[in-house]
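[job 4471] stage=fold_predict status=RUNNING
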Amino acid sequence: MGLSRKDKRKDKDERKMYEKAIVRKPGKTIVGGISSNDLGKPIYKKALKQHRNYVEALERCGVESRSGEEIKIKRRLEEFYDRIEIVESPGTIEGGDVLRICDHFYIGLSTRTNKEGAKQLINILEKYDYTGSTVPLKKALHLKSGIAYLGDDNLLAAGEFIDNPIFNNFNIIKVDDDERYASNCIRVNDYILVAEGYQS
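[job 4471] inference complete, writing structure tokens
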């Protein structure tokens, strides 16, 4: 179930929650990646341009961007954090299945995030005074491919997430099926990053 207002931190405390971002230039294997949309096969040169635009957008949001493609992600994270937690096999976690709303994390159970991975992540979160719960997925590839938190109890939702009782305590902004890719957006501080062509 969603968090009640009294259990949430005031939204203004979340306005400047992102100060750093770790980004990685797309590899050529992106053309063989899986997707839940009908946008066609990825074009590598176009993906590189979109990645540059994404990094520039993050910088405009007030985030310091770092490229970490030449080193492993763990080493890069250790530059910013004193303690790194790891989900161990047989647990698996996909970043696109983890949605943070204030102090609570919703974890989608998908083909790339299993129950053991979610259990381990929730145990890790509780060590730091956060909470977590799972969201079984029916058709969506990843949780955040169909739902995004915009702040102030507002969720942008498409498909199976529009009527999901887990999110009953939130104000649901519905996205039509033919524009469902618009729900795959990211809130960064005071900005919402939306795929080009889906801004109103």
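[job 4471] summary: The radius of gyration is 17 Å.
[job 4471] exit 0
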